[in-house]
Specification:
By secondary structure, this protein is an alpha/beta fold. The chain folds into three domains: 96 residues, YqgF/RNase H-like domain (Nucleotidyltransferase, domain 5); 94 residues; 104 residues, no CATH class. The chain is built from 14 helices and seven strands. The protein has a five-stranded mixed beta sheet with strand order 3-2-1-4-5, with helices on both faces. Strands 6-7 form a two-stranded antiparallel sheet. The longest helix is centred in the middle third of the chain and has 34 residues. The chain is globular. The protein starts with 5 loop residues before the first strand and ends with a helix.
Length: 342
Amino acid sequence: MKEVTIIGVDLAKNVFQVHGAAADGSVVFRKKLSRAQFQRFMAAHPPCIVAMEACPGGHFWTRELTRAGHLVRMISPQYVTPYVKRQKNDAADAEAIVEAATRPGMRFVEPKTAEQQARAVVFRIRQKLVAQRIELINALRSHLYEFGYIAPVGLQHLPKLVEVIADEASDLPKVARRACQGLLDQIDNLSEHLDALNSQIGDLGKEGETSQTLQTMPGVGPVTALAIEAFAPPMESFKRGRDFAAWLGLVPRQASSGGKTRLGRISKAGQHDIRRLLIIGAMAAMVGACRRGVPEGTWLGKLMRRKPRILVAIALANKMARQIWAMLTKKQSYRDPASAAA
């Protein structure tokens, strides 16, 4: 029997499909294992390369199998799809994972630690609560609009709606008033949870050296620093700052052919949360720069005179991504380019 050099695993909650292959790519075994059987099988198997998709549970199994002595490689699902032969099923997926992992130029996903995943949970829960609060406020606005009470969009205008519901002299029916008060109670409850999460994020931002370094940059706050720590791979995995910006999707999408370069809109590849927060932070940094006065001869000043505001924000976010790479690889705090040049 040939020696197994690589095992492809199609992860699931309860049933795992395992595909073992030799060095020449020939099939050695195909197995369908339960969760407990999979743990025992991999613990008893001699160390080898284990390939799997970067999906929910992938980082957990990477840590578990690494402790068992295996070399684990995670692949983005979009890179596995082209290697699936005809019909899609668990066995075909496991075989495709092996085929993709053996390609010389394949890109692999950096595994996350339990601490990184914990930060990601905090970020995702905060994101969910913010969306739920916005949904409830918009529902309250729409219900009160039925009775002629309007308020602009935004959390800052919520007190106007609260006054309408609290004013018993208004012509709002009691049944509707009672129902709207229930929505207000839910909004208050979500606000309390968000305040607690924001306090926790602030404490996390003060603990880590990476987070403190990131927050020295204008436009980067505790939430953005948390997202970078939770979702970005180690900066050493990128050769240059542009690679990190490209991973975030902040570089132009190419449609080049025949030696002619054609650049379009930003590619929007990679981690969308970090990209969104960097663009928001760039907008905030632009507002602060405009208040102080942007010198006309600077890069930002020239760009703001010629381009739309959102385009300038994206260009600045691209520059911020490159600076973040430099800060974290060199372990240095942010330095203002104008001050450094002087």
